[in-house]
Known about the structure:
Elements: H1 7-14, H2 19-31, H3 39-52, E1 59-64, H4 71-86, E2 91-96, H5 99-121, E3 134-136, E4 143-148, E5 158-164, H6 170-173, H7 176-190, E6 194-204, H8 212-218, E7 227-231, H9 268-277, H10 282-288, E8 307-310, H11 314-319, E9 323-329, E10 340-347, E11 353-361, H12 365-379, E12 384-388, H13 394-405, E13 411-414, H14 420-432, E14 436-440, H15 445-454, H16 462-477, H17 489-505
Parallel strand pairs: 1-6, 1-7, 2-4, 2-5, 5-6, 8-14, 9-12, 11-14, 12-13
Antiparallel strand pairs: 3-4, 9-10, 10-11
Helix pairs in contact: 2-4, 4-5, 14-16
Amino acid sequence: MPPSLNRQDTELMRKGVTPSRFAQYVSKPMTGYQWMPGPHLLYLEERVLFALNETEQQSFIQVNMPPRHGKTAFTSVFLPAWILGMFPEKRIMLVTYSDDFSIQWGGSVRNILKTYGKEIFGRTVDKTMSSNGNWRMESSFGGMLAVGIGGGIAGQGADVLIMDDVIKNAEEAASPTTKAKHWAEFTQNIRPRLEPGGLMINVQTRWAEDDLSGMIEMASGPDSDNWERIVFPAICEPPDGYEGSFDDYVDIIGRHVGEPLWPARWSLDALQRIQKLNEMTPATWDALYQQRPVPRGGSMFPVDNWQWFPYGDLPQTKAQCHALVRVWDLASSQDSGDWSVGLLMGVDARNHFYIFDVKRFRKHPQGIEQELVATANEDGINVAIRIEQERSGAGSIVVENYKRLLTRWDVDGRKPVGTKENRASVFSAKAASQMIYLPDGAPWVKDYVEECRRFPRGRYDDQVDTSVYAYDHLAAQAGGTTLWTPSDLGRLMTERDMQSLIGQLL
Length: 506
């Protein structure tokens, strides 16, 4: 039986103690460890209390922080217990990656209030409801529902709706199907559960650009929910786009660049050991610990690798190319969310590759067909046309249709083979060799570079796919290119020595 709190502490609770003080009082007897708030959790507490006081309109807070930095204990256990102790009429909904995980935390909240609720807040749980996943406060409709994402929440409302790490692991984070299901569940089922004046909190470790946090961010705008975004990297660094001095940067909790998030728990040395011992790639570390799913400079396509030519010189540069191809990746429909992309690339006698134009749009099938035919006439019959085929049988039907429409053009298609990363590796190596040129000042080039920078963690990859196909086509036309690996270098030197010797003998 956990020890009772003394009279003084009880009076402090009744006067409105904060969630963090409440957690410090009850954590040791209820969980076996003494919970101590880090500065980032105190900042989050401040923002949550501010939002709870806003009852005129709905409030939205998104928090991204690294693993094992106290987000679940605070947001899924101690915070809900404090809210229901202070406001027993409120209905709290907790959504995590699985029913079992959610019910575990729902039971912890129930046990805390069952043990200390009466003594601290003067109220307790309804003893007739034994479920850890769905229970009420005594003499109240308020209580807690804890479910996994996709679980049964129809007909339920929430004054406080908490989503805690709905992505289970790296496999789910890499699955477009799983992430699409999460987004559909959020927009169609979870978001509509929030009551007027309610508070929604999404707390998550970042995995990919298009995880739930990323999708919420991408959907933000003047006509969408006004999310307050709080980002806590494990080691302090300025956000993307920061143009000031790194030496002068101070984040929202007072850290300077290079300082750890929770030094009392994870020192800088400890964080660096985690990265080393777990053999994390820079991309994985940036996502999970720095909350930046896309590395600053890019992963497969660092921004510094691109070469440039003046946009005004485009006609002359194009005329120097001995082969040109326009590659299309066509979206299935106007409403699919994907882009239709047509990319024009050429290669010159030096084996340098130039991207001259990118058409990128969302249209219905008839509009796509009109755009493709108009672009073919604009490019001329000397520009080959290649179409990325869907893996299903419908892809070949699309290609055959354009062969009939454009009988004077060289039209063909191919099905993608292997992973996107593997297909893009040779084109990435060519860019790293500083042999891919872009027109400086072209209206489309900024979006192109950004999509490539985010690949393969970005939401869109159509421009990358068309670039890879175009490069493969032109390289094959030129007789292919040989990429020497370190293991080949010895053989290469031997061949050169042999050629030199033969030259001397002759």
